[in-house]
């Protein structure tokens, strides 16, 4: 029997679209935004025209910066994807999906850095 695996980009796409509408927000965290493609939108501009919390007065060196770091098994070349309002366990969470060049995909809580799961793929040619 031949074992087949999904290519990593397809697996990430499936993960990101595992709900009917991942951007459908039912009582969302007001600071959560799904990032389902590189630089937030299909034009790759990085612009979030729905941003209301961040301003030039509250984004300062004293008030804005890294909250935590996340351990991974190798380099990350792809942009992490963030899906807001994902049902996990007993509630809804913002989940960051991260893929490494070691063919490992991680799902972390985007608000506190808790690891939900990680999956490692095989390297080399599938048989």
Textual characterization of the structure:
The structure is a single chain. The model is unreliable at 1-6 and 10-29 (pLDDT under 50). This protein has 127 residues and is mainly beta. A four-stranded antiparallel beta sheet has the order 1-2-3-4, covered by helices on one side. The protein contains one helix and four strands; from the N terminus they run H-E-E-E-E.
Write the layout of secondary structure elements.
Layout: H1 8-16, E1 81-88, E2 91-99, E3 104-109, E4 115-120
Antiparallel strand pairs: 1-2, 2-3, 3-4
- Low-confidence sequence ranges: 1-6, 10-29
What is the CA-atom radius of gyration, in angstroms? 16 Å
What percent of the residues sit in helical stretches (DSSP H or I)?
under 10%
Strand order of the largest sheet: 1-2-3-4
Helix and strand pattern: HEEEE
Q: Number of DSSP strands?
A: 4
Shape: globular
Annotation field: number of helices: 1
Summed over residues and divided by their number, the pLDDT gives a mean of: 75
Distance between the termini: 10 Å
Residue share in β-strands: 15-25%
Q: Mind describing the biggest β-sheet? A: 4 strands, antiparallel
Structural class: mainly beta
């Amino acid at each position: 029997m031949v074992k087949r695996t999904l290519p990593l980009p397809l697996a990430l796409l499936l993960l990101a679209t595992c709900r009917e509408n991942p951007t459908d927000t039912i009582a969302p965290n007001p600071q959560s935004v799904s990032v389902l493609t590189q630089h937030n939108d299909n034009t790759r501009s990085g612009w979030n025209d729905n941003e209301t919390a961040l301003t030039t007065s509250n984004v300062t060196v004293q008030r804005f910066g890294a909250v935590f770091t996340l351990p991974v098994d190798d380099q990350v070349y792809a942009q992490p994807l963030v899906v807001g309002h994902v049902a996990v366990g007993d509630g809804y969470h913002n989940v960051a999906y991260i893929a490494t060049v070691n063919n490992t995909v991680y799902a972390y809580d985007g608000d506190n850095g808790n690891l939900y799961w990680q999956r490692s793929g095989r390297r080399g040619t599938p048989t």
